[in-house]
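Predict both folds.
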Amino acid sequence: MSQRLSAEEVSVRLRELPSWVVQDGKLHREYRFADFVAAFGFMTSAALIAEKLNHHPEWFNVWNKVIVDLTTHDAGGISPLDFELAAAMEKLAT
């Protein structure tokens, strides 16, 4: 089980992921892709990583947009696992 990060730890780690913010107590990011196929391809690749981490995002897709929220329910907030998945998603999106 991952441990919840303090607000200060979250702020420090967010420096490594400048496109991510904290919104409603979760790591939040909105991606835009060229079209639906690109957005869905990103989600498919991210799903494989999430499954390996046994950590699944809350996400939403409409056409070329993917909205992602990450939190660790067992930890009661944002944990290192959320940042690990967010970093992996950033690599996929570039």
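Second protein follows, with its predicted structure tokens after the sequence.
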Amino acid sequence: MKALAVDLAVSKLTVSAKNEDHVVTAVYDIGMKQSETLLPAIDYVLQKAGLTAKDLEYLALCQGPGSFTGLRLSFAALKAIQIANNIPLYGISTLDVYAEHYKNLPFTILSCIDAKKERFYAKAFLEDKEIFSEDDYTVEKIIELMKEKSSQNVLICGTDAELLHEKIKDELNNFNIYTVKFEVNTTDQLFKILEEKIKKNEPPLNDYDGPVYLRASEAEVKLNN
């Protein structure tokens, strides 16, 4: 498989090119300089993998939830490659990507991203099955869902696992809760899920599909108020 994967759902930018068994990955923890870095990063990993955009068979990205700016940038870049070269583009839930590495463990896997304002984008799995869907949750709602649906052993993953743990641990003090630092190579998980989707003949994104935000932007909120 010849493919390109991008995760720009949070401030860390991860880009990988896969040329059969050869994978080249670049990671940039650059904050607000994503727009200056994304296209050069794509060019870099493609060159190091011995590929051009025309060689690619598949494209994959984290489609959200996550940063409004980062998601827009990654969609714009990969849709340009998609349209120019007629390559299928697959969008994969950011929370699915962050949970994928741990889903074979005998725990409830709680995948999360800090959504600010005492809220988290979150989704949970047990025995590789979704037990509550991704949404923009209050801490109180996450606690309620965990009490209702979770096993006693919980692993929190994602960019803000430790922060969520601090906020729920007192209310869930009878649970065995563990956290993992956000060190997984997310584009490896993007490639893994992409290959599963291809095997299942799942369709790529439509031309009109865009990022999954789960929450209105600040500009939209102000416009509607």
